[in-house]
Amino acid sequence: MRAPVTDLPIVLEEVSFASGGVTILDRVSLAFAAGAPAVLIGPNGAGKTTLLRLLMGLIAPVRGRVTWGGRVDVEPTHRAIVFQRAAMLRRSAGGNIRYALAAAGVPRGERAARADELYALVGLNGLSRRPARKLSGGEQQRLALARALAKEPQILLLDEPTASLDPAATKAIEDVIRSIAARGIKVVMSTHDLGEARRLAGEIVLMHRGRLIENGSADTFFADPRTEEARRFIRGELLV
Questions:
Q1: Sign, Cα dihedral of 35, 65, 191, 136
Q2: Fold exhibited by the domain 1-78+153-240
């Protein structure tokens, strides 16, 4: 029997990316394997969003290469991404999920049960008839997570999923992320919140000015950072 196709590990080899003559990522070598969430941290402009877009395959490096499970130029059938401000379709919350399930190729007869599972997973039970654009910011972000999970990805990429949310909405999103990770889905997310990184991360990736500064276990990073940039970032002094 053939082994199941997987996009893990995702490996970046000396990857650089530039736009408009500006280098955004500079010779980044990094690997993401199965396991606990990997959290990207760093000041604004560090390259975190660009790195997520490369992992998804939305953009290609100008130098170096990215491989998914040892393969190149792989269609993102096993990956999903949720951006910081997810667009809501002009329909109900349930309509958004049903659209995502149809787009993922879920048979019509299975969609209702799958939708109920997704509502429960992200805590949107009872809101399926509510217009998606009338939901609160936190509810919209949980709906965006449900839509991304409709394709049953192996890898879920999240770009600052709790940015601008209040503490209660942030906790709800973090609880969903823990549930997703517990299902064996590899979560790679960016955040500007060091408290959130401490709560969620199994692995930390610190970026600064497009360069990889540190990568390793979250416990080790926060207890004994290796670089001066990391120590300054933890103290709130590494701003740009």
A1: negative
A2: Rossmann fold (3.40.50)
Q: Computed over its alpha carbons, how large is the radius of gyration of the chain?
A: 18
Find where tokens 């290469």 sit. Answer: 65
Residues 212-217, mean pLDDT to the nearest whole number: 97
What does the pLDDT look like over 125-167, one tens digit per residue?
989 999 999 999 999 999 999 999 999 999 999 999 999 899 9
Q: How many residues does the chain have?
A: 240
pTM greater than 0.85: yes
Structure tokens at 23: 């280098």
Q: Quickly count: other Cβ atoms within 10 Å of residue 109's Cβ.
A: 7
Query: What are the E-state strand segments in the chain?
Result: 10-19, 22-32, 38-41, 63-68, 79-82, 155-159, 186-190, 203-208, 211-217
Residue ranges, comma separated, of all CATH 3.40.50.300 domains in the chain are 1-78+153-240
One-letter amino acid identity for 158? L
